[in-house]
Amino acid sequence: MAALWMIIPSNGIASITSWFMGRVTKYFNLPFSRQLEKEADKVGLQLAAKACFDVREASVVWSMMQVKDTVEGNSIPEFMSTHPSNETRVELIDFLIPRMTELRDKCNCPRLPSNDPRVAMQHVKRFMDDKVVAKQAGQN
Predict the structure, then answer these.
(1) C-alpha to C-alpha distance for 35 and 27, rounded to whole angstroms
(2) Interacting residues of 80 by C-beta distance below 8 A, sequence separation 6+
(3) SS3 content of the chain, % helix, strand, coil (to 5)
(4) Radius of gyration (C-alpha) of the chain in whole angstroms
(5) Which pLDDT score is estimated for 132?
(6) Cβ distance 111 to 52 under 8 Å?
């Protein structure tokens, strides 16, 4: 871009070059990290467990966000964001749930319902994935 500006010096090319470089450097200088976001998710789950909430619902929330982004076509590649993708968050939360359930039990919370809300969410995800595929194929 700079070489092009040297050959054809104009304010338009300089503006485009500046905009492009700003976009590129933005992805290398993100103000917060996905690691901090993952830590915040873990702390949030710990607080929810100590407050006797059903920590399995956190996975459902992020699964719904994932479905919403898929349906609306708003997914951003994870490397372009300061936040983990919804899919990564669901995986992390599902990994942490056994430990958070133990923490919840240590706090003398009532037993969790036997029906896991994540199972119902899997059915919703499959249904919505089928809808998205049908929409892309031109079916209603």
Answers:
(1) 15
(2) 27
(3) 70, 0, 30
(4) 22
(5) 76
(6) no
